[in-house]
Design a protein that fits this description.
The strands form 3 sheets. A 6-stranded mixed sheet has the order 6-7-8-3-9-10, sandwiched between helices. A 4-stranded antiparallel sheet has the order 2-1-4-5. The protein is α/β, with parallel strands linked by helices. The protein is built from 10 helices and 14 strands. The chain is about 30% helix and about 30% strand. It comes from Fodinibius halophilus.
Length: about 300
């Protein structure tokens, strides 16, 4: 079910009275509930600006943003009542405790006092900070602060979550816990947009990606079709062990040997050339397998 839709959105920063720079360029974007999206792009591409524009924290200068709740258009103010946001960095008040921070943030939402008290208690347990809730945030590690921010984003039982580098500062165990948490919320119908440079994390958890470059979305794809949009995937050929590979093969292609079987890796564009060389040397191919696409390769290929 659709939650937010952007049509032809552009945003400017003014350098001076007479000069302005276009930061977002003609963005078309649609986010649905019950899906996890990855927002990818190099530094300065416009990822954080896009998220802040989605949330109304930055002004859009052109285009329209439509907000939905249960399939019906609603105002941005009403939509934001069920939206959580984790910024990349936050400066906390030095002396506030974790529990008081969540209570303070909870007062921004239409939650009664009794429900808020229970919600805060449940969220500390959910993000693994139950024993730290009475400590000053100043004593928290970077990973603890990140988990606290994730907890505050969940205060309103959100139908949409916007997460800017949510895995930063987390150890492998904590990352796994947060992946499970995000998947749990997705399964309950929450839509999630994750902006991150952690491409393996995105590939593990997301249903689709948006790739942004110079303020423009240059690629929108479902991750289950990752192989189909990799421009030049790698192919692996298996041959039986032979005494010596021809130099033309061993010096040009990556070759490995295991259990009497030689595997040659080649880009699909060069496959026919390799097959011809193998045929000329009387070497039979036992198996050909296309390697699964890697999100990092897709990312780099599309940013050339």
């Amino acid at each position: 079910m659709k939650s937010i839709e952007l049509t032809n959105i552009s945003t400017y920063y003014k350098k001076s009275i007479f000069q302005k720079t276009k930061v977002l360029r003609n963005i078309d974007l649609k986010l649905q509930k019950g899906k996890i999206y990855g927002l990818l792009g190099p530094n300065g591409a416009g990822k954080t600006t896009l998220i802040k524009t989605l949330l109304g924290l930055l002004r859009k200068h052109d285009g329209t943003i439509s907000y939905y709740n249960e399939g019906k258009k609603v105002s941005r103010v009403k939509w934001l009542q069920r939206v959580g946001f984790v910024p990349e960095e936050v400066t906390f008040s030095q002396n506030i405790t974790g529990r008081n921070f969540l209570k303070l943030m909870g007062n921004l939402y239409p939650i009664n006092k009794k429900d808020l008290t229970q919600r805060v208690k449940d969220l500390f347990q959910l993000v693994g900070l139950e024993s730290e809730k009475e400590k000053s945030i100043n004593a928290y590690s970077k990973g603890m602060k990140k988990r606290l921010l994730i907890a505050q984003a969940l205060l309103c039982n959100p139908h949409m979550l916007f997460l800017d580098e949510p895995m930063a500062g987390l150890d492998p165990k904590q990352r796994n816990q947060m992946r499970s948490l995000f998947t749990q919320y997705k399964d309950q119908g929450t839509g999630i947009l994750i902006s991150s440079h952690e491409l393996p994390e995105i590939q593990m958890i997301c249903d689709a990606i948006f790739l942004i470059k110079d303020g423009q979305i240059i690629l929108t794809e479902n991750l289950d079709s990752l192989d189909s949009f990799q421009s030049n995937p790698e192919v692996q050929l298996a041959i039986n062990d032979i005494n010596e590979l021809p130099q033309k093969i061993s010096t040009k292609y990556h070759c490995s040997e295991e259990h009497g079987r030689i595997t040659i890796s080649v880009k699909q564009d060069n496959l026919q050339e390799l097959l011809a060389v193998l045929n000329d040397n009387g070497i039979a191919v036992k198996n050909i397998q296309t390697g699964s696409a890697n999100l990092e390769k897709v990312f780099l290929n599309n940013l050339k």
